[in-house]
Design a protein that fits this description.
Radius of gyration: 18 Å
CATH architecture of the largest domain: 3-Layer(aba) Sandwich
Enzyme class: oxidoreductase
Protein name: Ketimine reductase mu-crystallin
Subcellular location: Cytoplasm
Shape: globular
CATH superfamily of the largest domain: NAD(P)-binding Rossmann-like Domain
Number of helices: 8
CATH topology of the largest domain: Rossmann fold
Order of helices and strands: EEEEEHEHEHEHEEHEHHEH
GO molecular function: pyrroline-2-carboxylate reductase activity; thiomorpholine-carboxylate dehydrogenase activity
Strand order of the largest sheet: 1-2-3-4-5
CATH class of the largest domain: Alpha Beta
Structural class: alpha/beta
Distance between the termini: 30 Å
Subunit structure: Homodimer. Binds the thyroid hormone triiodothyronine (T3); T3 binding inhibits enzymatic activity.
């Protein structure tokens, strides 16, 4: 059992606290993840925009067993879901990968995507160009830093959006027909990364329909219709293309 996460706004400081409890009867495991995420973390800030902690309980009596740093778990779990979606949904011949954003999720996505797939070119764009250049200098492999979103996504086969944008930054007229997009960043009902044209022209897959219809501003504000959950594709219930 895993209900949709509860999000508590920290309005004074433009932040949020998310609580994500789960119980697995099959594994007899009881846990919850607590995550804080704050908008507008400046380039000079030493505090990341997202910070997470995972608590593990003894399910028979509720005793706290472990407190774990959830930052790495969150980064790798999110990137893994994007990679699974890409495995099933990307164009058959995908040569160009584009990442929009240069934060923690950009690094975790780059790591697993370059491990699992073979791209001839990787591009990155970030609102702060210094962070994009730092990313390109830090990761293994050649990454092209782009000065605009339009330049970054032109002709790209796979696009990953991992930004804190609250208004659309990616527009349908810029995207190659048939491209696969992993839209990760707009996790609040009033946040957007993709414009209406792109949302309504796309075949829309989500990890959880219940969560998307509660939390995803891209889905809610565009009125786009969800075609399937990723799990339905993996099980063969819904087609990938």
């Amino acid at each position: 059992m895993q209900p949709v996460r509860t999000v508590v706004p920290v309005t004074k400081h433009r932040g949020y606290l998310g609580v994500m409890p789960a119980y697995s009867a099959a594994e007899d495991a009881l846990t919850t993840k607590l995550v804080t995420f704050y908008e507008d973390r400046g380039i000079t800030s030493v505090v990341p925009s997202h910070q997470a902690t995972v608590l593990l309980f003894e399910p028979s009596n509720g005793t706290l067993l472990a407190v774990m740093d959830g930052n790495v778990i969150t980064a790798k779990r999110t990137a893994a879901v994007s990679a699974i979606a890409t495995k099933f949904l990307k164009p058959p011949s995908s040569e160009v990968l584009c990442i929009l954003g240069a934060g923690v999720q950009a690094y975790s996505h780059y790591e697993i995507f370059t491990e699992q797939f073979s791209f001839k070119e990787v591009r990155i764009w970030n609102r702060t160009k210094e962070n994009a250049e730092k990313f390109a200098d830090t990761v293994q492999g050649e990454v092209r830093v782009c000065s605009s979103v339009q330049e970054a996504v032109a002709g790209a086969d796979v696009i990953i959006t991992v930004t804190l944008a609250t208004e659309p930054i990616l527009f349908g007229e810029w995207v190659k027909p048939g491209a696969h997009i992993n839209a990760v960043g707009a996790s609040r009902p009033d946040w957007r990364e993709l414009d209406d044209e792109l949302m309504k022209e796309a075949v829309l897959y989500v990890d959880s329909q219940e969560a998307a219809l509660k939390e995803s501003g891209d889905v809610l504000l565009s009125g786009a219709e969800i075609f399937a959950e990723l799990g339905e594709v993996i099980k063969g219930v819904k087609p990938a293309h």
